[in-house]
Amino acid sequence: MPQDPATTPPEELGPPWTLLKILRWTTHFFETKDASDSPRLDAELLLAHVLGFDRVKLYTHFDRPMGSDELASYRALIKRRVSGEPVAYLLGTKGFWDIELDVDKRALIPRPETEVLIEEALELVGKEDEATLVDVGTGTGAIALVMAKERPNLRVIATDVSEDALALARQNAEKLELDERVDFAHGDLLSGVAPEVLPVDIVVSNPPYVAEDERDEVMVDVKDYEPDGALFAGPDGLDVIRRLIPQAFDALASGGHFVCEHGWRQGDAMRELLEEAGFVDVHIRKDYSGHDRIARARKP
């Protein structure tokens, strides 16, 4: 009697491998290996990637059998996911705001929390306003590219200490046809910004802010695969931010703003550091989970 893939226990499923069977089996496998916080979603994303489908099409083709080559490709991705490799790196892309970014091990995978930073930055400049913004530690280019897309009159400069990350950001700029809107500068924090550009109106950054003593709290697919230099910043996670805040103050014009992502335990420390540097109107905004996440301040 043929198997009913909707009722057969996942561990007992076998050939022929239809899409429904393979999704149920993979979800169960990820769960038993504790490989993901979202086992079904990961299974669907990887399967859709192998087949060249969108996820909706999986649901309209549940009875479609998989070919041997497709199964081999899918199994290879499953093996890499179980080892801890992030889904975004397996897919090679990550959605952020309303753009699709190429991602790989050269830079941190953009997070939803950083979209809160985008919201804060967009409040500072109207659609018709002319202003200059520097994105410090651009990584994939996520912040710089969204700001350039959303604000056509904004001059955007993206910096990074990593040449590899800058190459990825340039790749994304070209892919999104924003390469003529964003200038890229290599250097530590703001050191790569040309003197003639200064002062600027807005400095934004998603710098490294994870404390070294929090390393054991960080998920394997983050700490073992994403670049250490984009994650960890000393004993309390503030080593980079301590250097960045005074540099941002010096780079800003009077009335300019600094917007910075930080760790959920660092809100009070951020306020203190910003006020010590001379910033005023310091505001700490919470992320979508209700945690302190974005600091915004003005240079008087």
Number of helices: 11
Portion in helices: 25-40%
What is the gyration radius calculated from CA atoms?
A: 22 Å
Q: Strand sequence of the main sheet, in spatial order?
A: 5-4-3-6-7-9-8
What CATH architecture of the largest domain would you give? 3-Layer(aba) Sandwich
Mean pLDDT: 93
Strand content: 15-25%
**Number of domain modules:** 2
Could you list the spans in which at least 5 consecutive residues all have pLDDT below 50? none
CATH class of the largest domain: Alpha Beta
Largest sheet: 7 strands, mixed
Rough shape?
Answer: elongated
| CATH level-3 fold name of the largest domain | Rossmann fold
Number of E strands = 9
Distance between the ends: 77 Å
Derived structural class: alpha/beta
Helix-strand topology string: HHHHHEEHEHEHEEHHEHEE
Supply the CATH superfamily name of the largest domain.
Vaccinia Virus protein VP39
InterPro entries: DNA_methylase_N6_adenine_CS, HemK-like, N5-glutamine_MTase, PrmC_N, RF_methyltr_PrmC, SAM-dependent_MTases_sf, Small_mtfrase_dom
Function: Methylates the class 1 translation termination release factors RF1/PrfA and RF2/PrfB on the glutamine residue of the universally conserved GGQ motif.
Protein name: Release factor glutamine methyltransferase
Catalytic activity: L-glutaminyl-[peptide chain release factor] + S-adenosyl-L-methionine = N(5)-methyl-L-glutaminyl-[peptide chain release factor] + S-adenosyl-L-homocysteine + H(+)
